[in-house]
Amino acid sequence: MPATAAPLSFAQQRLWFLDQLTPGSALYNVPFVLELDGPLDIEAFERALEEIVRRHDTLRTTFPSDGGEPFQCIEAISRWSLPVKDFSSVLGAEEEGLAESRILEQIRQPFDLSRGPLFRAELLRLGPERHVLSAVVHHIVYDAWSGGVLLRELRALYGAFTEGRPSPLTPLPIQYAEFAGQQREQLTGDVFDKQLAYWKDHLRAPLPTLSLPTDHARPSAPSFRGHRHEVALPEALIKSLQDLSARSGVTFFITVLTAYATYLHRITRQDELLIGTPIANRTRPELEPLIGFFVNTLPLRLDLSGRPSFADLVSRVKHVAFAGYAHQDLPFERMVEEVNPDRGPGQAPMLQTLLSLDNTPYAVQGGLAVGALTIRRREHTRSSSGTRQHAGVAVRESGRAHTRCRGAGVRIDEPHICRAQRPSESARASTSCVGRRARRSGCHLT
Length: 446
Prior knowledge:
Helices cover 36% and strands 20% of the residues. It is α+β, with helices and mostly antiparallel strands. The protein folds into 2 domains: 10-177, Chloramphenicol Acetyltransferase; 203-360 and 384-437, Chloramphenicol Acetyltransferase (2-Layer Sandwich). The protein has a 6-stranded mixed sheet, sandwiched between helices.
């Protein structure tokens, strides 16, 4: 490795290795799509994106290798341009179809990690005051938290540049490559041994395998194809979950995780579950404003045996989750490597389901106004996550939820996915169960 190069973080190392196994794959391409409604100053918008690329070394990073050993190479700052494609001459709904086709084309175009760039964007013009920013970034330099950072910085910079002001953003206290080096220096010796000892005990064999009732037989090899189904949870349900969390002295996430485990227990009849959850892993304030791949996955092993009440199960889940948080520094890829779990055909190692909660300080819901321009995130069906072989649920505390069935051959028809997302099937039933618990003691998992 050249003397001026930086090492990869543990998470980056795993994605680089997976890229070597499936070269030319777009599996870890993450879309970042914005709808821009109102008058747009394209020059100022381009300058804002260029400044973000300048600020964050990760967006100028490539991953060449020397003797089979990858390293981070940060490209010098150069002129960055935003291509514009004009679909405004197309009439009616056809322009939306052409724009969507172009977005999908961008998403499906693979990145070359050794050459880059690993962030690309273009502006789609649909009308005089209707534009779409279609950007794609490789997961090796970006995670879900990063999307909020990118959007908020874009808003601040665009607002300043349209008014002729300089950048209002303060210099970043650290760059991702520095974090990667620090991570490797710190996760050694006693620190590493203590973290590893905890996860080896937590993940001791035999590990539970999720046995979902599927509509089709599991294929022998993963297809990496899947679907996403989104619903809006009623405000009353979200409020009841928040109230229940406050009364129980736990976070909203712990309550939702308990409800999800309850639901899985009911449909699988399994007393032991292993549920993965992404964790931001930005444990220091100076890491919060960075664009980069920090996210880690924690496998939480939950015991639902003995017909516990929902309140008792909340306590069990809280204990397991907090112990996991206290040992979150060990990368998931090292856990898999050290535990070396059995790998069934067409099945992800260790984890077959994930639950994520999007409540980061940098998450943005709804539209952002910059003068007369409104900026909105467009959720795309082809979004990425840390592991591609899972069935899972993602929840926002604002009330949006979606299921993903992807990659590991978990094939469930849409009517059953819709039924699984009905609040009465999991969270609502669980919260009402706790209410009845106050009046009688016979409310248990069945």
